[in-house]
Amino acid sequence: MAKANFDTPAFRPYPVIPILKPGAMKGDGPFVAKPPMQEALGYPGELIDNWQEVAIDKMGELLKKYRSLRVYLDACVKCGACTDKCHYMIGTHDPKNMPVARQDLLRQVYRRYFTLAGKWLPKLVGAKDLTKDILDDWYNYYHQCSQCRRCSVFCPYGIDTADISMAAREILDCVGKGQKYCNEIIAKVYKIGNNLGLPEPALRNTLDGLEEDIKDETGIDVRLPLDEEGAEILVITPSADFFAEPHIDGLIGYAKVFHQARVSWTLSSEASEAANFGMFIGSYENMRRVALRIREAAIKLKVKRIIFGECGHAWRVAYSFLNTLAGPFDFLDQRYPIPQHICEFTHDLIQKGALKFDKSANDHRRVTFHDSCNVARASRMGNIPGGQFTIPREVIKACCNHFYDMPPDTIHDQTFCCGGGGGLLTDDLMELRVKGALPRMEALKEVVDNHGVTHMAAICAICKSQFSKVLPYYGFQMDQIVSIHQLVSDALVLTEEELP
Amino acid sequence: MGFWTTFYALSFYTATLILILGLANKIYQYANTPAPLKVPTMPAPLTTGGVIMRVLSEVVLFRSLFRSNKWIWLFGMLFHGALWIVLARHLRYFIDPIWSWVLLVQPFGQYGSFVMLFGLLGLLVRRLFVERIRYISNPSDYLMLILLLVIGISGVMLSFVTRTDIVQFKAFMLSVMYFDFFNWQPIPTDKMLLVHLTSVILLMIIFPFSKLLHAPGVFFSPSRNQVDNAREKRHVAPWAVKQFETQAPAD
Prior knowledge:
Largest sheet of chain A: 4 strands, parallel
Helix content of chain A: 40-55%
Number of strands of chain B: 0
Structural class of chain B: mainly alpha
Distance between the termini of chain A: 54 Å
Strand order of the largest sheet of chain A: 2-1-3-4
Distance between the termini of chain B: 77 Å
CATH topology of chain B: Fumarate Reductase Cytochrome B subunit
Helix content of chain B: 55-70%
Shape of chain A: globular
Radius of gyration of chain B: 23 Å
Low-confidence stretches of chain B: none
Structural class of chain A: mainly alpha
Number of domains of chain A: 2
Oligomer: heterodimer
Strand content of chain B: under 5%
């Protein structure tokens, strides 16, 4: 793709809050979903005639179903605490990318139709009729939110713009204006089983090829099984792990860890996708339907445990929602967390001393870690709050000699989004993605300059794809982003499986 | 029975009724709207006790706001903190005999009102001059601060400049509270007192229909009040069960 006509933001000498540029990111938004994809998800094919009425009704329905929406739309006092916290605001300077202003796009309509003050004195409280202009603003600006929840960390009432943008996208879908990228992917999951539309034979072929590669490289038979009934562990991983760089090196890492742990595991061709874009479009129904595939695969393959690969929003859905959407998982082994993250699994083995590493294999790398937003702010690993920060870092430190964290206000629960999360990882949003990456790139530059960091590790398929694309815009190399299990893979000392 | 006495007595009843019923309605609404998904902002506490501490740290210390912006935190804290002390001091006009701790609070409450005004002015100045906050402000956001400033300034005036017959006012207030219908003690009619009371009555009426709902709202915010136990305990909303799980699962 040719570079689009925009300038990559310059690194700021120190992080000043930008001057607002109203309308800087005004536009038509990402490509709109075509009718067949809309219909596959149960939505009208194109913008319906009575969209206004349907949108208001839908908003009313969501207000009754979601306490979050109701409380968040009421409670904001416009204090301004969130206004400088969004990476898209920092990168684009568009005031409508301030979290509160993004919420206000929905709140102005909520106030007009659902509150006394907005019905009687609309001008006073900033209430507005739902016009086509506002609908277009919704489509444009709710697709400039990566649902990363950074603003919710800083809000005195915990108002989560992610929840609001999910509700807005659900309303947009219901009036027939869905986003092409997300809805096309969900339709593919229903039809083929994964986001990439990779069918079973292609998947089997890929996995066989990987087994050969590992054999060639290490001389050891490491298996990547598919659809093996009776395996102990079902591994659900983002389909990018099957072909994209650096994702695939992570997948090789999982296989090596399972090999060394001497446990049987399998992938499923029917649930060959951890991602659940139903979350991005705020659709409980679609999210549930996508999640149920995992339950069905687990039952069909008679596994005892479910482990998720490196994927951010998938881990949020897995950790926080899977039990709700597709539970109860009483047929699985209750001695293990349901589901478990691959980093938890590897970390447990490291704790038990079951894995041997040759850390010098990673000596050519000086590594930092990018906390992916959905892992950091919407899920957990391990038994204590904050395990999602310590466990990945301990895994990295177990296999690398050189680890350096980025500045404290850009990691852990204050982490900055990669710029491509929340269903925005599409080329038609390239300008937004590059500009939204600015704060993370600045933090990376800091450790590159001060500690000679050469690589940034991540545990999210979207982060990895996004960074491979945007790193070059900021003067870095695309291969400076690595999977954690790629680091594990390179340092893990493999041994032949002893014969029984 | 003077006109103003009747007017203010009836206004107090109306405003109190609107405040209580309005808030009760909103709290009922929040409490009865399900939170169908586990969405605490992580890291979150693993126990109910932990959640209580988390919510208290937000309500009492404005913990998240402190992490976010020290100026807003400072002005917000000064305003809310002083407001509570000022309110506590005002109990003396509604209680007879006055509780001894209310007597103790009296001087702090009187001078606390200056702190409250300072906090409010700080918030107003930020709203006027910080570009980002000005952008997100509606007329109601300014008017709310102005209303609170009017209450505060008229209160300070009553305390330190144009005193009213406070004993007579208390007699009026008690007769209102004991429902001495149309037999209320006369209200003093100093202009400053009436300005003070009118703005307070207005605030009580506006409360349940405005952003002042942040007060009950903060206790109901799912990102702050949920326990992090999604893997251990299945959490499903009644509407989701009804919509999806009415027939037994096929397995």
